[in-house]
C-alpha cells in the first residue's frame, strides 16, 4: 500500500461522523477493506447505530497479539470555532485536521494498515487481532460487550492505539465517576428551621471527601491519587429551602488505592454522615474504570520501546497518563494481560477544536506496529 492510499484511509475515517453511538458506518467501511484483502473480519452490530468488529490474521498456533482502538469520537462543540471543517479531513502541510484525527482514527487506521501489510508479507506463527470498539468516549459499551463475548480469552498482549506521540505508556489510572444524592424537606426560606436543606447534606459530604482523601498513599508508578467534585445541582427557587440536591465526583484510582477500596471508603463515609447528622445521602457508581500497569521491565514493554525507538527517530520514552482507556475494562477480567498504549501525536490535542494528526507521526505508527508484531513473534 503506498503513502497516498494510507492517507486516504485515514481521511475517509475522519470524514465519517462517528460521534459516540454512531460507529456503524466506520465498521462498514473497514469491514469492506478487510474483505477485499481476504482478511477474516467479524462485525458486531448492536443498539441503533453502534458496532464493534474483530479482524484476525495468522496461523493460530502460537501467542496472540492484539491491537485495539475505538471508532467513536467526542462531539465537535461549536463548529464556528473550528478553522478547519471537522469532517473534511483537510490536509495542510504535514497535518490532517478533523474530529478524531488524533483520538483516535489515526491510531485505528495505523493498526488497520499494519494488519494488511503484515498479512501480505509476514508469516505469523500465532494470531494478530485488531479489535475496534464502540462508545469508548462515554461508558465504553463496546469494550464491555467484547469482554462478555470472551473474544479476549486467548489474547497474550495488547497495544491500545490512543495518541501518545510514540511514547510508550505502560500504565494509566482508572476513572471512577459517582453521584451523591441528598434528600431533605422543602419549606419557605423564611422558616428554614422547619425544613431540611438538602444542600447542607452535600456540604457535609464535600468536607468529608476532602478529609478522607487528604493523605492517600502515593503510587510508585502512577503517582498522586486524584479526586474532584465536578458538578453540583440543587434548589429550584431562591426562596425555597431545597428538598433535593446532588453532586457528581470523579476519582482516578491507582494500583495502590484501587476502585474497590475507593468504593468501600465512600460507602463508609456516607453511612457515618447519615448516622451522625441525621442526613439522607445516597451513593451510586456511574462509571467504574480500572487502572492498568504493565511493569516497565517486562519483555513486552521492552519490545514496544525498541519498536518505537526505531521508527520515531529517537529513543522512545516510557510514561503514564491519568486518563482511562478501553483497557480499563479489559483488565477487570484479564488482570495479568500486558497492555501498552501507543499511537500517533499527543493526548494533549485530543478533543480540541481543530484537532489534528501529523502524517509523519501516522506513518511512524504504522511501521512501529509492524515492528512490534515482528518482535513479539521472534
UniProtKB/TrEMBL annotation:
Residues 171-277 form the Peptidase M20 dimerisation domain. It catalyses: N-succinyl-(2S,6S)-2,6-diaminopimelate + H2O = (2S,6S)-2,6-diaminopimelate + succinate. This is Probable succinyl-diaminopimelate desuccinylase. Its cofactor is Zn(2+); Co(2+). One of its GO terms (biological process) is diaminopimelate biosynthetic process. Pathway: Amino-acid biosynthesis; L-lysine biosynthesis via DAP pathway; LL-2,6-diaminopimelate from (S)-tetrahydrodipicolinate (succinylase route): step 3/3. It is an enzyme of class 3 (hydrolase). Its EC number is 3.5.1.18. Keywords: Amino-acid biosynthesis, Cobalt, Diaminopimelate biosynthesis, Hydrolase, Lysine biosynthesis, Metal-binding, Zinc. Belongs to the peptidase M20A family. NCBIfam families: DapE-ArgE, PRK08588.1. It comes from the Bacteria. Gene3D superfamilies: 3.30.70.360, Zn peptidases. It holds the Pfam family M20_dimer. GO terms for molecular function: metal ion binding; succinyl-diaminopimelate desuccinylase activity.
Amino acid at each position: 500500500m503506498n503513502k497516498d492510499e494510507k492517507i486516504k484511509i485515514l481521511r475517509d475515517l475522519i470524514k465519517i461522523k462517528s460521534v459516540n453511538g454512531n460507529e456503524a458506518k466506520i465498521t462498514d467501511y473497514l469491514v469492506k477493506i478487510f474483505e477485499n484483502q481476504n482478511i477474516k473480519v467479524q462485525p458486531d452490530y448492536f443498539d441503533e447505530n453502534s458496532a464493534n468488529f474483530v479482524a484476525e490474521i495468522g496461523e493460530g498456533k502460537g501467542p496472540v497479539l492484539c491491537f485495539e482502538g475505538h471508532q467513536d469520537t467526542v462531539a465537535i462543540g461549536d463548529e464556528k470555532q473550528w478553522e478547519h471543517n471537522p469532517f473534511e479531513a483537510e490536509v495542510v502541510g504535514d497535518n490532517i485536521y478533523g474530529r478524531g484525527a488524533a483520538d483516535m482514527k489515526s491510531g485505528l487506521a495505523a493498526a488497520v494498515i499494519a494488519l494488511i501489510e503484515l498479512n501480505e508479507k509476514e508469516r505469523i506463527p500465532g494470531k494478530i487481532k485488531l479489535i475496534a470498539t464502540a462508545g469508548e468516549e462515554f461508558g465504553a459499551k463496546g469494550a464491555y460487550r467484547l469482554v462478555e463475548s470472551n473474544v479476549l480469552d486467548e489474547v497474550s498482549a495488547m497495544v491500545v492505539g490512543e495518541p501518545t506521540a510514540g511514547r510508550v505508556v505502560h500504565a494509566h489510572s482508572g476513572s471512577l465517576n459517582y453521584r451523591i444524592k441528598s434528600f431533605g424537606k422543602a419549606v419557605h426560606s423564611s422558616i428554614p428551621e422547619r425544613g431540611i436543606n438538602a444542600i447542607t447534606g452535600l456540604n457535609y459530604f464535600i468536607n468529608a471527601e476532602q478529609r478522607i482523601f487528604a493523605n492517600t498513599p502515593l503510587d510508585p508508578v502512577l503517582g498522586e491519587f486524584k479526586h474532584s467534585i465536578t458538578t453540583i445541582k440543587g434548589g429550584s427557587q431562591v426562596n425555597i429551602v431545597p428538598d433535593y440536591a446532588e453532586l457528581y465526583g470523579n476519582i482516578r484510582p491507582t494500583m495502590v488505592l484501587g476502585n474497590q477500596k475507593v468504593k468501600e471508603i465512600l460507602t463508609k463515609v456516607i453511612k457515618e454522615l447519615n448516622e451522625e447528622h441525621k442526613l439522607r445521602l445516597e451513593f451510586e457508581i456511574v462509571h467504574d474504570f480500572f487502572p492498568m500497569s504493565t511493569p516497565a521491565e517486562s519483555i513486552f514493554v521492552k519490545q514496544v520501546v525498541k519498536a518505537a525507538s526505531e521508527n520515531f527517530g529517537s529513543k522512545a520514552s516510557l510514561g503514564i497518563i491519568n486518563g482511562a482507556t478501553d483497557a480499563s475494562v479489559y483488565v477487570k477480567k484479564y488482570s495479568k494481560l500486558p497492555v501498552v498504549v501507543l499511537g500517533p501525536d499527543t493526548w494533549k490535542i485530543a478533543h480540541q477544536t481543530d484537532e489534528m494528526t501529523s502524517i509523519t507521526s501516522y506513518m511512524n505508527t504504522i511501521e512501529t506496529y509492524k515492528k512490534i508484531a515482528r518482535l513479539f513473534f521472534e
